[in-house]
């Protein structure tokens, strides 16, 4: 059966031009139109309905997939995607996937029936090879999913190193890490950033790393285990703010003074970190900017029927609050 690529090859044009002719949108030179029409006829090309509607951008609807709607990072991100889609007269659906590949695939299949135009996806679990074959553009946001996909992320590794260097600079002498899930690319990068900063220290031990799944409860438990095993820890870098709050609660429940005995820094910069007591020092991601940029990138790819890979990396910023303090008391 002939494909759009066969038509493009025979007519000596791009697939985007064939798509413009089929959907009657955008300018195509009349002679080119005739060539495309002849190729379609010669090859007896019948675009399948779903693919055609996906290319048409008929629904003017995009989706944002997030792994955990309970984490306030994701509503803040979703707000940016929504604002950007509205500015371009698109609508937007939010799918909470729990990082469960079956749920992710079920959403994709359901949305295909609605002629979805594109997807911004935050995932650590969906197979990159499955996504690669989508007819519609996909932007990986926050976590790298497959090398062939366009992405918008932050400098996780360098930002994490900066967080740990900051703990050293304020006088912490034994620094541990509560890491995110091992399967998430950005959790791995944050762990690598921590290791970059500590692995040459004579005090460093691999048991200074515990895993907390990017979740509040798991991070609380992991912090408790860590501090029971290693009471000498005086600095803690935690892979996200929600976990940072869990770490804070665990330390307080054990009677440890934060920041008097233990300084805690996390990662994200969500508003929740300003509401705790003490407030949480963090490496803040430009959450709104990365969400808006991913949505803008997606809409441009939809409208220009163009899927060239683009990657953008934003920079995190240290925000000092009350959960960290110089050892000399200043
Ligand atoms: O808090 C949610 C975490 O998952 C964030 O750190 C974000 O970067 C994401 O991957």
Note down, in words, how this protein is organized:
With 330 residues, the chain is of the alpha/beta class. 43% of the residues lie in helices and 16% in strands. The protein has twelve helices and twelve strands. The strands form two sheets. Strands 2-1-3-4-5-11 form a six-stranded parallel β-sheet, sandwiched between helices. The protein has a six-stranded mixed β-sheet with strand order 7-6-8-9-10-12, sandwiched between helices. β3, α7 and β4 form a beta-alpha-beta unit. It is elongated and about 80 Å long. Alpha-D-ribofuranose (RIB) binds next to β9.
Order of helices and strands: HHHHEHEHEHEEHEHEHEHEEHEE
> DSSP helix count?
12
Helix fraction bin? 40-55%
CATH class of the largest domain: Alpha Beta
Average pLDDT works out at 91
